[in-house]
Design a protein that fits this description.
- By secondary structure, the chain is mainly alpha-helical.
- Helix 10 runs antiparallel to helix 11.
- The relative contact order is 0.14.
Length: about 300
């Protein structure tokens, strides 16, 4: 790329590659019993650690060999995994023969899809958004060094990533929606701490709490998707994953806009708490529906 426009076009195709995530979370449940699906998808989701690794390694490597050479080096990694998939992938994997349009018609009528999308919008959105804005935010608002800010952001990403399998394991053993409600209550507390704190210690505790809740929540949600949707699981995973990606895109813009209006970013974190409360209401609704079905 020789211009910002070319760089954006290239980023689009990288984004298409990133959409492979929804392929994996659809394939994995086919190879494991239901009581292990949460753990399997949680371990698969740990691939998000690539975000942290890139954050740590790409800038210093780019400083040595240039950013374009760094990206070209990444081509080697992509090519290796393409070869591994070609040689080791299962070309006899069970396929769903329900037409795509029919799947979407069924999904669009199911309220659970919208609820799951909202929940993942918040959990994975928090994971992505904090990874994006946290380094600059810490430098500008707390005056810490760029290196220190980068390490703190890396810890946030790594913690959320490594706790994702824990969410899957818990979802295998207990009621995933009930656990999500507890998870979101803690996330709301963390968001309120960020919205009210002006001290680096309290802000750090709030960030760590949100990181843990985002990781566990991500694992719980992708335990629920294959259990709610059978033949439409692939399409559902794609839609839920898309909403998670959008969830990471909006918060930095919201924080910048609110800061420009009010002179402080505190209210933007309170908005996260408000979204968490809305999510709790939808979870309560799902719980009531499930109880009603069992009594009929």
């Amino acid at each position: 790329a020789q211009s910002p426009r070319m760089l954006m076009a290239s980023g689009f195709f990288l984004g298409v590659g990133g959409a492979v995530f929804s392929v994996g979370v659809t394939s994995i449940p086919k190879y494991f019993p239901k009581e292990r699906v949460g753990l399997a998808n949680g371990i698969y989701g740990m691939g998000n650690i690539g975000t942290a690794i890139s954050s740590f390694l790409a800038p210093p490597i780019a400083g040595i060999i240039g950013w374009q050479s760094t990206v070209r080096g990444y081509l080697i990694v992509i090519a290796l995994f393409a070869i591994f998939m070609f040689l080791l992938g299962d070309n006899k994997e069970q396929k769903i023969k329900v037409p795509l349009v029919k799947q979407y018609k069924i999904l669009m009528k199911d309220l659970r899809l919208y609820y799951l999308s909202l929940w993942y919008f918040i959990t994975f959105g928090s994971f992505v958004a904090f990874g994006l804005f946290l380094p600059n935010f810490l430098v500008q608002n707390f005056g810490i060094s760029e290196v220190d800010a980068g390490i703190r952001a890396g810890v946030f990403i790594a913690l959320a990533t490594f706790l994702r399998p824990l969410g899957g394991v818990l979802g295998d053993k207990f009621n995933a929606v009930t656990l999500l409600m507890c998870d979101f209550i803690l996330m709301i507390i963390g968001a309120i701490m960020l919205g009210l704190s002006a001290h680096i210690l309290l802000f750090t505790i709030g960030c760590l709490l949100i990181s843990m809740c985002a990781g566990v929540g991500n694992g719980l949600i992708f335990k629920l998707v294959p259990s709610y949707f059978g033949k439409e699981a692939g399409s559902a995973n794609g839609i839920v994953s898309m909403m998670g990606g959008l969830g990471g895109f909006f918060p930095p813009l919201v924080i910048a806009y609110i800061t420009s209006l009010t002179g402080t970013s505190h209210f933007s974190f309170i908005l996260l708490a408000i979204f968490g409360v809305i999510a709790l209401v939808t979870m309560s609704h799902i719980m009531k529906r499930e109880k009603l079905k069992t009594t009929l």
